[in-house]
Specification:
This protein is an alpha/beta fold. It has a single domain, classed as TIM Barrel, CATH 3.20.20.70. The chain is built from 11 helices and 8 strands. An 8-stranded parallel β-barrel has the order 1-2-3-4-5-6-7-8, surrounded by 6 helices. The structure holds 1,3-dihydroxyacetonephosphate. 1,3-dihydroxyacetonephosphate binds next to strand 8.
Length: 247
């Protein structure tokens, strides 16, 4: 399993800043260790970003997709459109979509299914809020968020084609990353849950205040198969340092 380095740019950037960011990333060299690098730009910049990346083997992905195929759904982006623009991946159920936009577990599961139908690899984002953590609800939240996809018809098969990103909500954008040992334990729990439900070989990655300072220690843990980076991915030097922390 190649380590995954995903960059979620969220709703940030402009043509100019993306030109600078990508040219700065491409001007630096990486060793030949195999990595899966996936950039998630805002959807209006997907094609532009894909073109800037040229023929280096990095992927682009959508930050969101519609649960519908096409039609009168103003403002939505269809899975087929993401494919058309060259996306290989899509984020599903990011905490900002669950908690700011109000997406339910059921809607997230439908989106996950839609991504699979269109041969996009969905990254299912799961994780507890601070209140849920304080109330010792973490495992229940994880169970519920995973189960919504598992409960789809042929759910185990569908889930096994995706990636799980554990992103505790209290760690996102706060500068307070979860401790590597705690992440490893949580990922171990998720792995066991998946295996008990006949879901195998799914990478489990971590997101939440990943920086060049903590990426190395996180990625040393065998339970952590990659990172999903927000803020630090908007800074070429920081993202490059994160990419270089495996050797
Ligand atoms: P930060 O790295 O800014 O905490 O964001 C994490 C995230 O939400 C990635 O999807």
């Amino acid at each position: 399993m190649k380590p995954i380095f995903a960059a979620n740019w969220k709703m940030n950037g402009s043509l100019e800043s993306i030109n600078q960011l990508i040219s700065s990333l491409l001007s630096q060299s990486l060793n030949s260790i195999a990595r899966e690098v996936i950039i998630f730009p805002p959807s209006p910049y997907l094609l532009h970003t894909k073109k800037l990346l040229g023929n280096i083997n990095w992927y682009v992905g959508g930050q969101n997709l519609s649960n519908f195929d096409q039609g009168a759904y103003t403002g939505e982006v269809a899975a087929s459109m993401l494919r058309d623009l060259g996306c290989g991946y899509v984020l599903v159920g990011h905490s900002e979509r669950r908690h700011v936009i109000g997406e339910s577990c059921e809607l997230v599961a439908q989106k996950f299914h839609k991504a699979i139908q269109h041969k996009l690899i969905p990254i299912l984002c799961i994780g507890e809020t601070l209140d849920e953590r304080n109330a010792k609800e973490t495992y229940n939240v994880i169970d519920k968020q995973l189960r919504s996809v598992l409960d789809l018809p042929t759910g185990a098969e569908i889930l096994s084609k995706g990636i799980v990103a554990y992103e505790p909500v209290w760690a996102i954008g706060t500068g307070i990353a979860a401790k590597p040992n705690d992440v490893a334990n949580l990922h171990g729990y998720i792995r066991t849950w998946l295996l008990e439900n006949k879901v195998e070989d799914v990478p489990i990655i971590y997101g939440g205040s990943v920086t060049p300072d903590n990426a190395h220690e996180l990625l040393l843990k065998p339970e952590i198969n990659g990172v999903l980076v927000g803020g630090a991915s908007l800074d070429a030097n920081k993202f490059m340092e994160i990419l270089k922390c495996i050797n």
